[in-house]
Model the fold of this input.
Amino acid sequence: MTETVTIQGPPQQISAPAGGNPAAVSVLPQLGNALDAAQGAGASNPLQSISSLSGQVARFASDPLPDRMLVAGASTVRLVVTAATTTDAILFIGLHDVGSDSDVLPSGLVRPGAIDRPGAGRGPGGDADPAVSGAADRGRTPARAHGCHDRPRLPTARRPAHLHSRARGGGTQPLTVATVDGHTVRPGRPLAWLITGVVAVLLVIAGVAWWARRRRRASRPDPDLAEVPIAIHDLVKEYSDGFRAVDGVTFRVERGQVVGLLGPNGAGKTTTLRMLVGLITPTRGQIHVFGQPIQPGAAVLSRIGAFIEGPGFLPHLSGRENLRLFWEASGRPLDDADFETALQIAGLGTSIDRKVKTYSHGMRQRLAIAQAMLGLPELLVLDEPTNGLDPPQIAEMREVLQRYALTGRTVMISSHLLAEVEQTCTHVVVVMHKGALIAAGSVHDIAGNGRMQLAVPDPARAAQVLAGAGISAETVPARRALEDVFLDLVAGE
Amino acid sequence: MAVGDNHRTEAPTRRGVHERLAALPAAGEPVPFDPQRTLPLRIEFIRQLKRRRTQLVALVLLLLPILVAIAFKVGGQQTSGGAALVDIATTGATNFALFTEFAAIGFLLVVIVALFCGDTVASEASWSSLRYLLALPVPRPRLLRQKLVVSLTLSFGANLLLPLWGYVVGGLFFGWAPARSPLGGTFTTSEAVTRLLIVVGYACVQSLVVAGLAFLLGVMTDAPLGAVGGAVLLVVISNILDSISALDPYRQYLPTHYQYSWLDALGPTVVWDDMLRGIGLSLVYAAVFFGAAWVRFQRKDITS
Done:
């Protein structure tokens, strides 16, 4: 297709001085690169040299283009050129792309034409520029330059030559520019890329969904255990480096009990509790809570309130906002939360409306226990709940937990503090050491280990009496029963 | 230790609690629980919007166009008269909006997207609140989905806020002249808005790559900074490799290779070729990263 651009300019006289300097070298079709190479670096902008030759160039320019134009092919224009003094002048005609700060002759192409009629003449009318390809941007001006001096043609201009050049029709003349409607494309099919992308997304979604479903199907509930809060069987957690944090633990917790998980630091208590709430996947063994197998995100976890290894709050929110947002994240109705009880258990007073990051360790601890008790869960799991509490608070907490269990709910606490477990856990103690369960039973059973203690005001005399009755006896200092048992159990540490 | 108990707080429990506990109904029926209602979007939005970093990002996005506009005003005469976006930025509202988008897309928006998507899970892990959400329980795929929806909404919101606010600021500073294309021609206002939306939409799809990697790293690490930094690092490295033309047949597969292809939407006609390629490439990367994040998180032992 073609577009028409109006160019204009006054009549101009151009001369070709013999051996003019500087030489202007442009490019001729078929010869272009050779000329470029001959001229060296200066050839990079041949137009510059042509247009800088004052008096040797006639220019006709259009107004700035309103729109982008992609030029491809030869352009034509009719100009009247009158040879004044010569019979054999050569004209070079080119179409320039002129911007406010640039002036480009696309590909450096010009077209030569000869004037061979002296006196009057119409010159190379209707001639075509060399086929050029390029984009003339909006705001740029195509200009047409007539130069009549060019190094390869030097021998043709032995004498000064003068030409008159003007545009016909009162200074304006249509310039017909061959254009194409198109844009630069790269090979390949862009749509294929898009389809690949969409297919990849769909494949990944389907794959992840399928994989998640397959995992879910893996385990079944056990109806026999439906009334048992915790049933753990042969639980093992082995890390990739071969370390067994929990090694074959089996125990069971019944409703209404306050159960203690006792052991020194590193015994595997926290790991066990983490597995109990589905944070860690066991290497082997099963955990059933109310008969439902535990796996990450199991629905039965909604019946557990957990406080594991320290509090976790959003520091930029207040204690009250934390509790409320936490509960709302469960998707359960607000009325079920029983915030009032939780707030009383936290006992933070007006501090509940301050940001959590201003809280002391003990305050966070209490808030975390309150958070675990939101919704009054049937099973409360507390990991080291009394860390950071002062003695009166510990005593209060102990009573709260015991009363909580009286409602038929179950409490499990872990601790490395013997006294705490001994006083809080009315029912069962599970003792762990180095990942293994080394004793389980009531506080009484474990501490007494089946033997009775007899307290007498006068040990020496009692021993004599017993010896007389044929019973051997020895005197031992009074001691905290569970503590000694515990130390015996973990002896060899 | 922090400020501490300077209001004398009471003992953790009081007699009232004991009475309440004594009066509790005995444990009975299991509570109704629907995993699909956990962590509603509204809650996650509140959790994120109240964070200082979210507010800071909003502030930066609101201040940036104003700063740029003042810089243009103070900087005075632009005499180059070129046609690049920066040269025509002061033409009017739309051009200014396009320029702010252009200026921000290479790094600022990358950092913001990485921040929103990388830090959402990692910061929960660093606060230890992640384990309480999971034990609540919020099923893990559900947690990721809700968090991703919120993070992407915030990211895309930032992506949209910047040019829109840039449009308003540009209009106030430089008038409401019709948009000039860097490739020639002017647009009517409705055409300009359409083009702007194409640009924003394409930028959003492009940002899925960064979002995906940041999300994956955020799931793998407990350090929010690591996740954000890792994703930004990917963009920087990809940009460096992309500038090496010797890599040519393979360069086009780099995640940022088509980062600026939205410039094709500013011509007289919208050229879709490179944008289609860019979208396809981004979707592939995003699918891989997000898929890996889901699988990794499902299997992960939460030890934070």
